[in-house]
Amino acid sequence: MEFPQNFKLLKAARLVDGYGGPVRERAAILLKSGRIQQVGTEETVSVPEGATVEEMDYGDRTIIPGLIDCHVHLIGIGDGRAGEELTALPDEVLTVQAAQNARTHLYSGVTTVRDCGAKNRTTFLLREAVKMGITPAPTLILSGRPVAIVGGHLSYFGTHPTGPVECRAAVRQLVKEGADFIKITATGGSTKTSFPLRPSFSIEELAAICDETHKFGKHTAAHCASSQGIVNALDAGVDTIIHCRHKESDGTNIYRPEIAERIAERGVFVNPTMNISRVSVELLETKQEEYGLTQSEQSQLDGLRADHEFILDSFARMRDAGVVMVCGSDSAWGGYKMGNFQGEVEEAVVGGMSPMESIIAATKDSARSCWADGVIGTLEPGKQADLLIVDGDPTRDIKDLRNVVDVVQNGTVVDRNNYL
User: Fold this and answer.
1) 328 and 71 in contact (C-beta within 8 Å)?
2) Residue 202 in contact with residue 231, Cβ under 8 Å?
3) For 158, phi and psi rounded to 5 degrees?
């Protein structure tokens, strides 16, 4: 005896499929067993005869692909503490924190995250807990420990090889543990023992990491806080450049168009992490309003404002050069808490993208950067049924992305009231 198949039929005033074409009006999307079956209008989408269907009519709302944050640190707290303080916490505490952050991001509309570096095996343990149904989370794309030099940025998380042979061995170990991609700190950063504006690995070491990663059919993403770091990453074959700051070793902001041209020619993605810069400015501005600033803090604020304006300008110029920009928040790091990925998407609009372009950067192109676009990122038959339903029309006002009505993950509406 054949039993009727169960389907979900979602209707809404608008649907954005993630490809950038016209918004579908009076839209409908049919789901079955966690996959998208049909996308179209109320007239064109139909349920097979005899099948049972759960119908959900969202009225004057918009359906878009689930958001993809291609740069998070799930073990972060976002309370301003330095990485050195964070890593001093026990792994058990950090794993619980990662679970809380993952749930927060999922409930805010983010259905996939790429975690760009965690201590020891904390995020791998989170994935096990998610598989067991202990805690909800977005789809997790994990690097495990980032690959850093001795004393380099994020080296306290646990992997710091020296020389091409050790670099290849580090990649193999991470793949063995379950890494989906390899995160590299190609320059220094906020880590106190690192040199923020200087390259870390040699080009030979970087190339060994990239080559070994690609042998396993996986991708690399490299933290680059200076122009020379970007150049080295390009020479080595990195797939995504994170931050991509056009800074000289003396701290001078100088946009280098020839670098942007190389990025575009090679088809490398750039994750500019602009909102974390905005958050740093806003935290000091809030302190200024409430308590006032010391002379040192005022100087810091002035510098952060100038840097943020330069970041926005570089973003616009790289886009004009043909670079594909993707959205990744870098939360929870510093004072940037999880659950505010929409801020990164909004900054892309401030930087010159249209609302539709910023949605694509946070869905389709983020999925491409994560090497996951065959499964997620757009609404089309066969893909995983990850959707976000919002009040309003985010293609006209990007802030409507914050008006979350429902989050659908693998075809199931997420219970966002479940905080157990």
Assistant:
1) yes
2) no
3) 125, 0
Closest CA to 137 of 103, 97, 108: 103
The overall pTM is greater than 0.90: yes
C-alpha closest to that of 208 among 268, 242, 161, 267:
161
Q: Which of 39, 48, 52 minimizes the C-alpha distance to 3?
A: 52
140-187 tens-digit pLDDT? 999 999 999 999 999 999 899 999 999 999 999 999 999 999 999 999
Q: What is the DSSP string of 213-260?
A: HHHTT-EEEEEE-SHHHHHHHHHHT-SEEEE---B-TTS-B---HHHH
Question: What is each CA distance from 138 to 98, 106, 320, 390, in whole angstroms?
Answer: 12, 5, 32, 18
Nearest Cα neighbor of 138 from 162, 161, 112, 104 is 112
Token representation of residue 151:
């004393």
> Parallel, antiparallel, or unpaired for β 35-41 and 24-32?
antiparallel
> What does the alpha-carbon distance between residue 388 and residue 395 come to, in Å, rounded to a whole number?
14
Do the beta carbons of residue 358 and residue 348 sit within 8 Å?
yes
| Contact predicate 171/157, CB 8 Å | no
